[in-house]
Amino acid sequence: MQLFVELPPVVLPGPRPMPLVGARGNLIRFLAKPVQAMLRLQRQYGDVAPLTRDDPGWLLAIGSAHNREVLTNGDRFHNLADHPVKLPAGSAAAKFSLSLVNQNGLAHQHGRRLIQPLFAKHRLATYARMTADTTARTLDRLAVGQQLDAHSLCVELSLSVALRCLFDVDATAAGGPSDDLGELVLDYLSRVFSPANMLLPVNVPGTPFRRFLTTSERLGDRVEQMIRERRERSAGDDMLSALITAYASEPDQRSSEAVDDELLGQVAMLLIAGHDTSAHTLAWTLFLLTQHPEIQAALIDEVDGVDVHDHAAVMALPLLDRVIKESMRLLSAVALLFFRRSTDSFTLGGHELPAGATVILSPLISHRDESVFPEPRRFVPDRWLSCSPGPYEYMPYGAGPRLCVGMSLGAQIQRVILVMLLRRFRVSLAAGARVSYTTRGVLMGPLPGMTVDLLARDRGGAPAGKRVRGNIHELVDLS
């Protein structure tokens, strides 16, 4: 994709262009710290604000009306999810872009039709059993009195579950076949959204971009190996088996190589996107529970005795549902949606805007509308006893025709893992912990340092209102 687009000026109040580098500098500065930038732009310029004064190239649009306008008009607003720099043709990094999140129009409809059955109700029941079994083996290694980084634990839990559901491999077995795959996924995620790749996309030895391409090739080779092995054996209950069957049974006029490249892209998307979002959501939820021990205690009481292998039983827990909904509202793992670029002129917030304008939407900021969510910076799970926001007011999984295809599985995984964790431990924020948020691509998660103590369930957690260090106070009222 072309990241920077020169468009005719439109009268739009906004920040001045940066000296020397102009609007490009404003965009790079935004991408470096998008959450802080969105909060500042909305506060200073309102719900429709350009990144650069009078430049319609990139605009932030906040609120349900703008969310609805953009997300329901897929023909006018195309998903702009490609890597921001040109990738070598035929490279694994380029093939990874051949996935549902990058597709538009008929290609997106075709891909969604093939992937949607992976999340059918009967399959969710199978994934619930896989999630419970995998999580139990990970939690068996933990003990009361242990201190650890909450986000690292949640990454381990969610990635192990993703590998089991997608490939039916056991990531909890030391030295098992998935060890290198899990490490490759984490290495890839650390590099794909690196600002250095965008600022210096030079494919020469020693550069961050070359290391990103090398990691992508290693991950691509490993996933292709998994695909080949799965084709050579009987289909199982895992997602990869179902996806291979779906592609094999679908008439396609393209070459087998083109179909295989797309299959690789779809598998990589399912592996990378799903686990990262769940890990962030779980980590934020654990943090919020440490700050509200009375809610954590009530939740511990609720989860006792529930059959974690039973999809319906887990999804029917009312307090658990409210806690996770509120966590995903207050600290949405999806800070902003993939950018949308207009194919035609349009009107937004009373401004006439040209084709080629790119619109930024944010679930995180939209979830702070006081008219929908009173006291929006506070963690109040019981607001969901009476709160019924519309689909464009509360959208942790996006909204409209591009609503996250795997949202049902993500919701289930988060609930099963949290139930199993709270059936063993009470979680308390450790002394000296630092809770700060950061963004990687469109996702928002904790920085290292969110250390927690695993306590016996009959012991009290950290008192509510305990002073927490870190920039989390920019987003959450902990008073």
TrEMBL record:
It is an enzyme of class 1 (oxidoreductase). This is Epi-isozizaene 5-monooxygenase/(E)-beta-farnesene synthase. It comes from Enhygromyxa salina. The keyword Secreted does not apply. Heme binds at residue 404. Pfam families: p450. Its cofactor is heme. InterPro entries: Cyt_P450 (IPR001128), Cyt_P450_E_grp-I (IPR002401), Cyt_P450_sf (IPR036396), Cytochrome_P450_monoxygenase (IPR050121). Its EC number is 1.14.13.106. One of its GO terms (molecular function) is oxidoreductase activity, acting on paired donors, with incorporation or reduction of molecular oxygen. Belongs to the cytochrome P450 family. The keyword Cell cycle does not apply. Keywords: Heme, Iron, Metal-binding, Monooxygenase, Oxidoreductase. It comes from the Bacteria.
